[in-house]
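Quick one:
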Amino acid sequence: MPRSVRTPQTVKRATAHSHHHGHEPQRVLREVAAACEDRGLRLTPLRQRVFELIAEQPKPVKAYDLLDRLRGERNGAAPPTIYRALDFLLEHGFIHKLESVNAYTTCHHPSERHSVPFFLCDVCAGATELCDPRVAELLVEQARQLGFLPEAQTLEVHGVCRQCRERDGGRRQERAAERGGGQRAAGLQDRATVDDGLHGSLSLN
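Output:
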């Protein structure tokens, strides 16, 4: 079921700042517990444990990795078990699902309902949450001007983080650019081959 886009009206921060995920798991867990109490939500031991497993990871984690951890702790843990807990945490804004990598990470401010963009490093798989309400506001305003009714908002920017760039001295970026150029050239060659085949087929008819 598509989720309604939450405009960041309840977010008090007016300026942009970022959070690298994988820090302060106990702090965000306390915020989740307090938010559940305030909203009358039931934070079951299983839901709490799934949240803890996500919060303990320095990088986004996939559902099957969470399931493997749970199976080591609980007998009878199955995919429906983990997905029900994930659905609860997602529905109430306690975690984010990173669609492009099909993985989950905790929300750094789980007591606030907001939509945020992420910077995802393709080298170390790290995720950085950009807390800037202006980004979501701009997208919603542009949608309104176009007469478009948004139902979900996902913004994930892939690239290379500062730490990986500094550690690799920029060499990895150069290699990635070379690979990208080669892939684009190969794609053009493949398209040319397909076009030639189509023209050949047409000439036979």
